[in-house]
Amino acid sequence: MVTMKGLWKSKKYQQKLNGNVEVKTSRAKNADKKFSFPPEAELERITKYFADPNCKEINIGLMPNASELDKAKYDICQSISRYKRINKLTPNELAKKLKISQEKTDDILFGRIGNFQFEELLSYTEKLNGHLELKINYDGESAPQSAKQKAPARA
Fold first, then answer.
1. Closest alpha carbon to 46 in 59, 57, 34
2. How would you write 84-131 as a 3-class SS string?
3. Coarse DSSP helix, strand, coil percentages of the chain, rounded to the nearest 5 percent
4. Cα 112 vs. chain centroid, distance in angstroms?
5. 19 phi and psi angles, rounded to 5 deg
6. pLDDT tens across 88-111, in order?
7. Residue 143 and residue 115: Cα distance in Å, rounded?
8. Number of Cβ within a 10 Å radius of residue 91
9. By the 8 A CB rule, do 139 and 114 touch?
10. Gap between the Cα atoms of 119 and 125, Å rounded
11. Burial 98-121 (b: 16+ CB within 10 A, else e)
12. Alpha carbon distance 150, 133 (integer Å)
């Protein structure tokens, strides 16, 4: 029998197993609450806040006609943001790990690629032990074979 860190010996746990204790769940508490949309004034306040061109707490994404370099820079920013989320780091902890200011960290996390050179972003991924993989696709053309694929087998 596995003793899940002493839970098995607990009276409350044994009572729950036997059905002698009423188990309350968070769903039961929230079942009576009905969802209500925020008031119109609150929606207008939020919309106005994020519509401000000086709002720094929004990721504007990429323009549809973004260059390949901008797409690569944006992908690096997204990768660093994903690293932060997976490792449960605060923006301040990430800034310390990258040895950059909080403002620069925010620029990365919100995808403000215009503030960075490609090489600078690449150096930040290296500080996080990240590695760059480069893939090149040719539209409508077959890609040239790599040197390994071209070389004939030697006898």
1. 57
2. HHHCCCCHHHHHHHHCCCHHHHHHHHCCCHHHCCHHHHHHHHHHCCCC
3. 55, 0, 45
4. 15
5. 85, 15
6. 999 999 999 999 999 999 999 999
7. 33
8. 14
9. no
10. 10
11. bebeeebbbbbbbbbbeebeeeeb
12. 22
N-term to C-term CA, the chain: 61
Q: Which amino acid is at 58?
A: I
Number of alpha helices (DSSP H) and beta strands (DSSP E) in the chain: 8, 0
Q: How far is CA 88 from the centre of its chain?
A: 10
Which of 102, 101, 98 is CA-nearest to residue 129?
A: 98
Residue 56 in contact with residue 110, Cβ under 8 Å? yes
- Tell me the per-residue pLDDT of 122-132, one tens digit each, with 9 for 90 and over: 999 999 998 88
Residue located via tokens 């003793």: 3
